[in-house]
Amino acid sequence: MTHVLAFDTATDVVTVAVGRDGVPVATVEVDSARTHAEQLVPAVRRCATEAGVALDRLDAIAVGVGPGRFTGLRVGVTTAKVMADALGIPVIGLSTLEVLAAPWVAPDREVVSVIDARRREVYWARYRTGGPTGPVAAVPEAVAPPAEVAAVVAGLGPSAWVVGDGALRHRDLFAATGAHLADAGAAVPGAAALVAMGTARLASAPAGSARALVPVYLRESDAAINWEQAARGPST
């Protein structure tokens, strides 16, 4: 029997699940906004208690590594690394965009995952097929203006599905492409996909070292961008 703790903090919602043999037995979702550090550990404890699985019985930890909110990613990845190191268990990094796409991938559709990146940009990736351990990206993960991503979606035709909080944030733009827009339930990474993908990857290949796990940012943080802009001074 394999127990995996899985969580994702890349969006404004903290999703936590404890899975047994690839199926969630307890899940917790918390709308955290900017309080990921305060919400994650209590959510993990609550989820483990509801699942009846002591932390020292876990076989692995799976964590979303982004792209997504900078502060949330740092909290999630750091927590996963510290817990895995303390418990002496492997840690598996999962792409948040892949987790979003996983429930929707099918042979007859293209799935585009879109996460709001603020600053009039989105993180996105496109998926055509799913493998034994999760969706397979047709193009690399990237950050771009939403209009640019909408143009790609429009070219995919009616078989396209768009998921993620970026799709909801820019609903009118993506609705105009003729694509299917998943509802609010597909706005954040789901517990079932986190558990299933984490368990499958644990079984298929050795998990990486906790110390080697890093968040996927795709661009500089807002703080770094603001600092650079301030250093350049007002534009003329």
CATH class of the largest domain: Alpha Beta
What sequence of helices (H) and strands (E) makes up the elements? EEEHEHEHEEEEHEHHEHH
Shape summary: globular
Beta strand %: 25-35%
**What is the name of the CATH architecture of the largest domain?**
2-Layer Sandwich
Descriptive report:
The protein is an alpha/beta fold. It has 2 domains: 3-96 and 189-228, 2-Layer Sandwich (Nucleotidyltransferase, domain 5); 97-186, Nucleotidyltransferase, domain 5. It has 8 helices and 11 strands. The chain has helices spanning 36-51, 70-87, 96-101, 146-156, 165-169, 171-175, 191-204, 222-232; strands spanning 3-8, 13-20, 23-31, 60-64, 91-94, 110-118, 121-131, 134-137, 142-144, 160-163, 180-181. The strands form 2 sheets. Strands 6, 7, 8, 9, 10 and 11 form a 6-stranded mixed sheet that branches. It has a 5-stranded mixed sheet with strand order 3-2-1-4-5, with helices on both faces. A hairpin with a 2-residue loop joins strand 6 and strand 7 (121-131). Helix 1 packs across helix 2. The model is unreliable at 223-230 (pLDDT under 50).
